[in-house]
């Protein structure tokens, strides 16, 4: 499997400079995260992980207490329908499913390099819908973040939360995913009832959401993050692994499918 590097700081700055100061550059890491045999162990990790609470920890945070990109992210998704894990028109002619871990640096790369243009050009226009499948396998921080994301999905604010998570992502398994960090992300997600989300994150439904996503990944042969399924509405989905995590290969695939659908 090819190796990829996390995007350089200049790429992230190009997105955040409109509203926020970009976070510092991080070292290159390994290529796409592979699940291998870890999916079978995820349920045990989920059950063992302490749910989010109002008592924040003091582990190292990705942002030092500050949330980057909140205004930019709010504008990106404003007015676009969300329903659970789905973003956009439920009857869009093209569907994209993303399998990701919220601590995965290459999922972050896609979110920074590709997602904004795809949302503006294809999702907002109703041509493409996106669905997010949360594979929380990298570590306990992934599970804690996944539970918060599942709680946000219950209020139809999943995409706001996960976008902010990627814009403020720290070094994986470094302890930055603390209760206070997750509370700040929830608080920065427009229209979200934070207290209700905190309560929901501790409920069995969030565990069910994470285990269901892992079952979907197993069924569809997904073994790395980020991974994508793509297809026309009403038709089968196929695995789509773009050569780069930029908007260009996604746009090319979308345009081909949209052309076939006309």
List the helices and strands and how they pair.
Blueprint: H1 9-16, E1 33-34, H2 42-48, H3 70-77, E2 82-83, E3 86-87, E4 94-100, H4 105-113, H5 115-123, E5 128-134, H6 140-154, H7 158-167, H8 179-187, H9 194-201, H10 204-219, E6 224-225, E7 227-232, E8 238-240, H11 247-261
Parallel strand pairs: 4-5
Antiparallel strand pairs: 1-6, 2-3, 3-5, 4-7, 7-8
- In CATH, the architecture is 3-Layer(aba) Sandwich
Order of adjacent strands in the largest pleated sheet:
2-3-5-4-7-8
Tell me the name of the CATH homologous superfamily. Answer: Glutaredoxin
In the CATH hierarchy, the third-tier topology is known as Glutaredoxin
Number of strands: 8
Given helix and strand content, the structural type is alpha+beta
Number of helices: 11
Largest sheet: 6 strands, mixed
Question: Could you list the spans in which at least 5 consecutive residues all have pLDDT below 50?
Answer: 1-8, 18-31, 37-63
SSE succession: HEHHEEEHHEHHHHHEEEH
- Could you tell me the mean pLDDT? 82
Q: Give the CATH class.
A: Alpha Beta
Tell me the helix content.
40-55%
């Amino acid at each position: 499997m090819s190796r990829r590097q996390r995007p350089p700081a200049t790429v992230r700055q190009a997105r955040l400079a409109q509203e926020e100061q970009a976070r510092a550059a991080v070292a290159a890491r390994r290529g796409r995260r592979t699940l291998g045999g870890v999916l079978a162990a995820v349920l045990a990790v989920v059950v063992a992980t302490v749910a989010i609470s109002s008592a924040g920890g003091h582990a190292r945070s990705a942002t030092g207490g500050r949330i980057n990109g909140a205004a930019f992210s709010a504008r990106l998704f404003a007015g676009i329908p969300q329903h659970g894990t789905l973003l956009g028109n439920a009857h869009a002619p093209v569907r994209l499913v993303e399998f990701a871990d919220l601590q995965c640096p290459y999922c972050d790369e896609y979110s920074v390099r590709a997602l904004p243009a795809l949302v503006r050009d294809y999702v907002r226009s109703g041509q493409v819908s996106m669905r997010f499948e949360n594979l929380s396998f990298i570590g306990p921080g992934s599970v804690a973040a996944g539970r918060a994301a599942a709680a946000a999905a219950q209020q139809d604010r999943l995409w706001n939360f996960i976008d902010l998570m990627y814009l403020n992502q720290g070094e994986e398994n470094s302890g930055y995913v603390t209760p206070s960090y997750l509370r700040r992300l929830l608080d920065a997600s427009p229209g979200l009832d934070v207290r209700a989300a905190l309560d929901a994150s501790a409920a069995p439904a969030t565990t069910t959401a994470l285990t269901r996503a892992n079952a979907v990944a197993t069924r569809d042969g997904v073994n790395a993050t980020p991974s994508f399924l793509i297809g026309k509405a009403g038709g089968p989905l196929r695995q789509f692994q773009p050569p780069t995590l930029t908007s260009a290969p996604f746009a090319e695939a979308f345009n081909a499918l949209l052309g076939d659908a006309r």
